[in-house]
Specification:
- Helix content is 3%, strand content 78%.
- It has a 30-stranded antiparallel beta barrel.
- Strand 19 and strand 20 form a beta hairpin.
- It is mostly beta strands.
Length: 572
C-alpha cells in the first residue's frame, strides 16, 4: 500500500471517531524537491524527494481530545535512498488515554546495482487508565520487524513483540509498584525463537515515622527454541532504612539472586547472596558523608566485598567554595577457598574554586590501582594509574574570555615501563570593535607529549577564526587550522583553510551561505565547496537549495563527491 492510500485511511479513521461538528485544529507542512548525487566512481542518481508532516487536534466527547500526526519522507543520499512513513493517533479523556503509532522505514542502494535493501517496521499501542487516583495503570503492546534483503532474497528477518504492564498503588505513604514484561523475538530464516517474562513487585512501607521497609520480588523465565534452553530466575530483596536523627540515616539490605538453566539433560544452578550496609551523615548543611559496605557470595564460587565513601561539600550560595566532592571505592574478589583473585581501588577528587566573580579554577584528580591474579603464573600483577585535569576560566571584561588547561595521565604497570601523557590547552575569544561593528575572534592552542618507554610522540594544533560584518547584509568568516604529529618514524602535518560568505537580502528576504575549504595533509589534498540558499517566496511558501562538492587529490587518483538538492515547502 503506497503512502497516499495509507494517509487517506489514517485521516478517514480520525474523522470517523470524532464529532464532525466540533472545532478542528489542522496544521502541517508539505514539501517536494529534487536531489542528485554522484559518487567517487562517477555513478549518478537523481530523483524527486518528498517531505510531509500533518497534525490534527479535535475535541473528543466531553472534556476529551483526539490528536493525529502523520510524517512521510522520501529522499536520496550518496549511498542510497530512504523512505519513511510514521502515523500516530491519541485519544484522551478524563481517566483514560489510548495511543496508536506505527513506523515503516525502507532503505536501498541506488548506484551501480541494487545489492542491498532493508526494511524496518513497527507498531505500538498504549493504554493509560486511572480508575482511581491511587491506582494508575499503563498497558503497552509493541511489535517490530527488521528485514534485510540482498539480491532479492531474504538474508535476515528479526521480529520482536512485547507486552508491558505497569501499575502503581499509593495508599498513604506506602507505595507498591507492579510491572510485567513479556517479550518474544523470532529469527525467521533460522527458525529460532526466544521468549522471556519478568514480573517485578516492589513495595515501600514507612512505619513509626523514622523507619522505611522496602521489599522486592522478581521472578522471570527465558526460553530458547529449538535449542530447548530454559532459564528460571528469582531475585528478592529486603531492606530497612532508619532515620536515627536529623542528618543521620542508616540502612541495610539483603538480596538473593537465584538462576537455574536447563538444556536437555544438563542442569546448572547459580545462587548469589548479597548484603550491604550504608550510612548517610550530614553534620553541617554544606557537608555530607555517604558510606557503604557490600558483600556478595556465589554458592560454590567467588565472593566479593565492596567499600565506598563519598564526602561532598555543596554550599547553598556559591562564594569562594564551589561544589567539591571526594570519592573512594575499593572492590576485592576472592574465590571460594579465600584465594585472592582481583582488586580495584579508585579515588576521585573534584573541586571548584571561585577566585573572583569572573575567575574560576576547577580540578579533577583520579587515582586507581588494579591488581589481578594469574592462574597460569601464580603471580599477582599491579598497575597504578593517575589522571589530572586542571582548568582556569577567566573573563576580565565582557569582550574577552580565555581559558588555560593542563592534563596529566600516567599508567605504571608493576615491573614494566610507565606510559605518560602531558597535555596543555589554551583558548581565547574576543569581541573586537571596529568602526562600530563587532568582530568575534577566537584562538585555540593545544600541545601534547606522550612517552611510552623510550618512544616519544608530540602533537600540536592551532585553530584561529574570525567573522567580519562587511555590510548590514553581507558577512565573511575565515578559519585556519594547523595540526602536526611527530615521532621517531612519522611526521604528519595538516593545514586547513576555510572561507565563508553569508548574505541576507533586505528587499528580498533570502539568505545565501557559501563556504570554500582547503585541507592539505601529508598524503592528500582536499577541496570543498558548500552553498545553501533559502527564500520565503510567499507567506508560508519557501524554497531551499543546497549544493556540496568535495574533491580529493591523492596518489594515484583524484575523486569527486557531489550532492545537489532543492526543496519547495508549504506550511499551513
Amino acid at each position: 500500500m503506497n503512502q497516499g492510500k495509507m494517509s487517506f485511511l489514517v485521516f478517514l479513521l480520525l474523522l470517523t471517531w470524532v464529532d464532525t461538528s466540533a472545532a478542528l485544529d489542522f496544521s502541517g507542512q508539505v514539501g517536494t524537491g529534487y536531489q542528485g548525487v554522484k559518487n567517487t566512481k562517477g555513478e549518478e542518481k537523481s530523483e524527486l524527494t518528498t517531505n510531509t508532516s500533518l497534525q490534527l487536534t479535535r475535541p473528543f466527547g466531553q472534556g476529551g481530545q483526539i490528536e493525529g500526526n502523520l510524517r512521510a519522507e522520501r529522499g536520496s543520499s550518496i549511498t542510497g535512498t530512504r523512505q519513511s512513513f510514521q502515523p500516530s493517533l491519541k485519544f484522551n479523556r478524563s481517566w483514560w488515554e489510548f495511543s496508536l503509532s506505527g513506523k515503516l522505514d525502507e532503505n536501498s542502494n541506488i548506484v551501480n546495482q541494487v545489492d542491498y535493501e532493508g526494511q524496518n517496521k513497527s507498531i505500538e499501542a498504549g493504554l493509560k487508565l486511572t480508575p482511581f487516583k491511587f491506582l494508575p495503570i499503563e498497558l503497552k503492546y509493541s511489535k517490530s520487524g527488521r528485514e534485510n534483503l540482498r539480491d532479492g532474497s531474504t538474508q535476515q528477518e528479526i521480529v520482536t513483540g512485547s507486552f508491558k504492564m505497569l501499575a502503581t498503588s499509593t495508599i498513604g505513604q506506602s507505595q507498591t509498584r507492579l510491572s510485567l514484561d513479556l517479550t518474544e523475538t523470532e529469527n525467521v530464516p533460522r527458525e529460532e525463537r526466544t521468549k522471556s517474562s519478568l514480573l517485578d513487585i516492589t513495595s515501600t512501607i514507612p512505619f513509626r515515622q523514622r523507619f522505611k521497609l522496602e521489599c522486592s520480588l522478581k521472578p522471570g523465565r527465558t526460553e530458547s527454541l529449538p535449542m530447548d534452553v530454559t532459564t528460571d530466575s528469582l531475585q528478592a530483596g529486603l531492606g530497612l532504612t532508619a532515620q536515627v536523627r536529623e542528618g543521620l540515616q542508616l540502612g541495610t539490605n539483603f538480596s538473593l539472586d537465584k538462576r537455574k538453566s536447563t538444556s536437555g539433560e544438563t542442569e546448572t544452578e547459580t545462587t548469589i547472596n548479597g548484603q550491604n550496609y550504608t550510612i548517610s551523615y550530614q553534620p553541617l548543611p554544606p557537608l555530607k558523608l555517604d558510606t557503604g559496605y557490600e558483600l556478595s557470595k556465589t554458592k560454590g564460587g567467588n565472593k566479593s566485598r565492596k567499600l565506598k565513601a563519598d564526602l561532598g561539600f555543596t554550599p547553598e550560595k556559591q562564594g569562594f567554595w564551589g561544589n567539591n566532592k571526594l570519592s573512594f571505592q575499593d572492590v576485592k574478589i576472592e574465590d571460594s577457598a579465600g584465594v585472592f583473585q582481583s582488586e580495584n581501588s579508585q579515588s576521585n577528587l573534584h573541586s571548584l574554586l571561585n577566585l573572583t566573580s569572573n575567575m574560576k579554577v576547577s580540578n579533577q584528580v583520579n587515582l586507581s590501582t588494579q591488581k589481578q591474579y594469574s592462574v597460569a603464573t601464580g603471580q599477582t600483577s599491579k598497575t597504578d594509574n593517575l589522571r589530572l585535569d586542571l582548568r582556569l576560566n577567566h573573563q576580565p571584561f565582557q569582550a574577552l574570555n580565555y581559558s588555560l588547561g593542563y592534563g596529566f595521565v600516567q599508567s605504571k604497570p608493576q615491573g614494566g615501563s610507565k606510559n605518560t601523557t602531558n597535555s596543555y590547552k589554551g583558548s581565547l575569544s574576543y569581541q573586537l570593535k571596529l568602526a562600530g561593528k563587532a568582530i568575534p575572534v577566537s584562538l585555540g592552542q593545544n600541545f601534547t607529549v606522550s612517552e611510552s618507554g623510550n618512544k616519544e610522540t608530540k602533537t600540536r594544533g592551532t585553530d584561529f577564526s574570525f567573522k567580519v560584518p562587511i555590510t548590514s547584509s553581507l558577512a565573511a568568516d575565515y578559519a585556519l587550522g594547523f595540526n602536526q604529529a611527530e615521532s621517531e618514524t612519522t611526521d604528519n602535518k595538516t593545514t586547513r583553510n576555510q572561507v565563508g560568505l553569508s548574505f541576507k537580502g533586505r528587499r528580498f528576504p533570502f539568505t545565501l551561505q557559501t563556504k570554500f575549504g582547503h585541507l592539505d595533509s601529508t598524503q592528500t589534498t582536499t577541496r570543498t565547496f558548500n552553498a545553501t540558499f533559502a527564500y520565503p517566496i510567499w507567506k508560508n511558501l519557501s524554497l531551499d537549495l543546497s549544493y556540496n562538492l568535495e574533491r580529493t587529490e591523492a596518489d594515484p587518483e583524484t575523486t569527486n563527491l557531489e550532492d545537489f538538492s532543492g526543496k519547495l515547502g508549504y506550511r499551513f
